[in-house]
Amino acid sequence: MTGNNDRRNFGTRGISRRNLLKGAGAGLAVAGMLPAIGRSARAAAGKVVVRTGGGAYEDALRKAIFEPFTAETGIEVVSFATNVAKLVAMVEAHDIQVDVADLGEFTTVTFEKRGALEKIDRSKFKRTDLADVSTVEDYYVGENTYGTVMGYNKDAFASKHPGSWAEFWDVKAFPGSRMLEDMAAEFPNLEFALLADGVAMDKLYPLDVPRAFAKLREIRPHITKWWDSGAVCAQMLANKQVVLGSVWSGRILPLVDENAPVAIEWNQSAVQLQTLCIIKGAPNLENAHQYIDFALQPKPQAEVARLSGYGPVNKKAFAQIDAAMAARMPTSPEHAKISFATNARWWVEHKAEIADKWQAFVLGE
After folding, report:
1. Are 19 and 11 within 8 A, CB to CB?
2. Which of 11, 60, 4, 5 is nearest to 308 (CA)?
3. In percent, how much of the chain has pLDDT > 70?
4. Alpha-carbon separation of residue 221 from 44, 169, 208, 293, 364 (angstroms)
5. Are 104 and 15 a contacting pair, CB within 8 Å?
6. Which residues fall within 8 angstroms of residue 322, CB to CB, at 6 or more apart?
7. What is the pLDDT of residues 143-192, one digit of tens each?
8. Residue in 203, 242, 45, 17 with CA at minimum distance from that of residue 111
9. Domain 3-145+272-341 CATH class label
10. CA 361 → CA 29, 137, 198, 210, 218, distances in Å?
């Protein structure tokens, strides 16, 4: 997700799936735009270069991870705030200037398939017990989580609001205009359609695509907008342009804090993953593993969560997070029981197929 569609509401932290594909094609063309930071970092054994999206999210990382990591290890963290296109350019040009990349899982899986990531050496983890981390893959680990939830306007549902996607589809019991996600934002809400049609959360994947589109056709007459921006979806709820809709948790929570007439139903929410991975050919490979090992400990995980509002992946971090803060996070013990993890690998494999079907669907077919 790019800054335009950032579900976290943290400047340019998110990564756009659409822009990743654009960036891959334009990789060599933008190679000359890369900053000079990497050339000096490459030769310095006392550094680790970490790609972030910049903005307030990087400020949270600096306080919770960068500075404590340097204090403990003496290894300087050099932040490299860049978009995916420039990261792709490094891979295409074999000019690796980054060690660790902080990326959305969809982007990470795409990089993995391109052979652009180092395998995670689990023997290097001395501070973190990887058994406590929810996602540990061969080429990446989870870093934190964010969610797509059902948002609703409290004025429209003062006494009772929909508590499931089946009830979202029930326009007689819960009347009013609705919205769902457009593929231009990230990907359409096929999972929610299947949940509305009775599929169990633990049986969603592989997605039954024809069944999902058939269910979406049922709700289509009641959809005011297929939203393509995180800012748009939250504001439409607050302004009562719609009374129900899927929305990124990072976009609706600030409005809740501002006492806007909006609220979240966490049941059947979709959890997405932000990851840490090591770019193939990382100049500071040993330091990269040390950085990730440090970042996944319960204390830094809890601190990032407090500063950013996104859920930790180390289950022991919740012992250091108060109940009120935990209630805002997709992976809180309570929310984890009623949510599902988005299968990024399935979406990477089927993105092109779904894009074609979606285009036909929004045109009325």
Report:
1. no
2. 60
3. 88
4. 59, 11, 22, 49, 10
5. yes
6. none
7. 999 999 999 999 999 999 999 999 999 999 999 999 999 999 889 999 99
8. 17
9. alpha beta
10. 34, 35, 22, 11, 12
Asked if 73 contacts 288 with a C-beta cutoff of 8 angstroms, the reply is no
| One-letter identity of residue 101 | A
Contact 224, 241 (CB under 8 A): yes
Give start-end residues of each CATH 3.40.190.10 domain in the chain: 3-145+272-341, 148-270+344-362
CA 73 to chain CA centroid, Å, is 29
Q: Are 6 and 274 in contact (CB under 8 A)?
A: no
Q: In this structure, are residues 312 and 144 in contact, taking their beta carbons and an 8 Å threshold?
A: yes
Of 79-88, 93-102, 300-309, 356-365, the poorest mean pLDDT is in: 79-88
pTM of the prediction?
A: 0.82
Whole-angstrom Cα Rg for the chain = 20
Q: State which fold the 148-270+344-362 domain adopts.
A: D-Maltodextrin-Binding Protein; domain 2 (3.40.190)
**d(Cα 173, Cα 190) in Å, to the nearest integer?**
22
ω into 206 cis (within 30 of 0): yes
Cα–Cα distance for residue pair 289/186, rounded to 1 Å: 30
User: Which residue type occupies 110?
Assistant: T
Residues with Cβ within 8 Å of 135's Cβ and at least 6 positions away in sequence, in order, are 141, 142, 273, 275, 313
Say which residue the tokens 């964010």 belong to.
146
Band of the pLDDT at 32, cuts 50, 70, 90? very low
Q: Write out pLDDT tens, residues 213-228.
A: 999 999 999 999 999 9
Please identify which residue in the block is written with the tokens 């406590």. 132
Beta carbons within 10 angstroms of residue 365's beta carbon = 9
